[in-house]
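Follow-up to my earlier ticket, as requested here are the two runs.
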Amino acid sequence: MEWLTIGAFARASRLSPKALRLYDELELLRPARVDPATGYRYYRPDQLEQARLVAWLRRLGMPLARIRTVCALPPAAAADGIRAYWAEVEAETAVRRDLAAFLVDELTAPPRKDTMLELRYCAHSDPGRVRPANQDTAYAGARLLAVADGYGPAGAPASSAAVAALRFLDSAELPAGDVLNVLEDAVHGATEAVRDAGDGSDENGTTLTALLWTGSRLALVHIGDSRAYLLRGGALFRITHDHTVVQSLIDEGRLTAEEAVTHPQRALLLKALTTGTPDLRLHDAEPGDRYLLCSDGLSAVVPDAAVRDLLTAAPDPEAAVHALVDTANAAGGPDNVSCVVAELVATAA
């Protein structure tokens, strides 16, 4: 038997030794032999065809978990799997292309001096059907929208303290060019308030997702696995990134979004308000935009497609909030459910 060392196999397959070690760990491309003394990996020449297929699929951007499925299929079925994946990519790209075209048109259009944007909103928090207490906090005001999901014995005081520490922003004068710094300072205050509420214990904490309306743009702060979504032009976009173990596995290609739904560590946070640095950024706003902030009591049980349909069909934020909460509870309500929905309406100046 002619064996290829991992270095020779890497050169022939155009995969790095680091990638080959990862694919071995994921049982995607196992070496034919491992030296029991040194742990060194060896491959057969007939494994090069599969290795090259893996390399090509990675260039397509296919996640590793999906590559594993495709590589296990006979050629005709594998081809069908690749076609199905690329159809999904093209559909997602089309949605993003349409949004990009919309944004270009809006940014290059003459300024609308006769209208201004007004924020209309509603917030609701529900304990769900299983949990004995509600550790979520939801808030909506003329400028501030926020959802916090507490955990630990003092989870409810922690989430409440985080949102309460931001509420002054609802009436404060905001410097237009410095809103992110103002929001960052407010979050520092919220972090200290959460530590005080939890007596400094690492067992207690909270997620936080909040939007601050400046009159023309929205400033976002986010940490944890509560989420913010934007409904624009009939398409739903998630504008936050979960800080969870499962999301990190998805990002690395070790897990698909479908597999994540039932993963045993799906609720394990990598960051929360007192244990990491939040994401901060600005979002441009357009008339007709609808924003949803929610705890994972909604996102974990109601698929994004259903969320989009409910947000689209609701005549106003209040109807949307109650439809979303009712749907989560109808799906079993395994966790507290909190939703904030806000829409931007053009009004006469």
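Run two:
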Amino acid sequence: MNIEEKEQQFKEASKKIEEVKAEVQRFIVGQGDIVEAVLWTILAGGHTLLEGLPGVGKTMLVRSLSDVMDLSFSRIQFTPDLMPTDITGTMVMKQARDDDHPFTFHEGPLFHHLVLADEINRSTPKTQSALLEAMAEHTVTVVGETMTLEKPFFVLATQNPIDLEGTYPLPEAQVDRFMSKVLVSYPSKQELKQIIKRTTGTEKVFLEKKLSQRELLTIQALVKEIVVTDEMIDFAIDLIDATHPACEKTTGGIKQYVEYGSGPRGLQNVILMAKARALTHGRYHVSTGDIKQVAPLVLRHRIILNFEGEATNVHTDDLIRELIDFVQKGDHL
């Protein structure tokens, strides 16, 4: 494939992504930044943790994306009594027992392209860990037998930030498996008015499929071909390194309020999401702006506050903004 054909492929991919976003927003009121962030994560091949109050459209956003991208969809309502086999599937005995394999595997809801893990922090750690293998390895193991999940595969999990009764905080290892954490804000008055008009009347919105599974896999491969220079890699490395309070040159806020910073997976995800953002904006290379825009999405759940930070209600997003300015100005050098 020559350069002109490759450029045309990038342009078509960028156009397709824009069509997906526009189609989703025919149904979802506002939340343009949220839709973009989730799309960047999907194109980069990662999983998303959506955090927001009940009723702000998290579930409908995920369902709309599955419709527009022609992905099979399943929704798992996480509850304290949910068992690992309820999501992975289980072995079921056949009625006819005259063969050498009396059991057959009954697939669970994980065997879909787009899995919505609703209120994921309401299930026990045992069930949460069953999801970890699928997220990390794209495989499911039941009774010693490992099965590979069909690509593409994404987990979009939701959690309520204010409802703590009867919840089980996600282990750090599982939180780190989410490429991004997206905060879903409360709609404005104008958006509320549009929501009422769309949801309480007789008009129905039917979403069109704008992207096939094969096209999505092709675009995911194109994302990895986006050029990232050594300068951009160094910028991302400096950013990740400065999230650690033990770093000699970092901000006062990081040193005072942070217990642990981001690991290497955070760096990988910053670069991948920056590449996805570049492609969606019709560019073939990563810019500083791409890294700055995706950094809060990737780092907000990877920066762990210490006791003082928790007690004084410090927001990690504020620390990240301070950190980006610090690194961009070269104060860390």
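The only thing I checked on run two: The chain is about 45% helix and 15% strand. Let me know what else you need.
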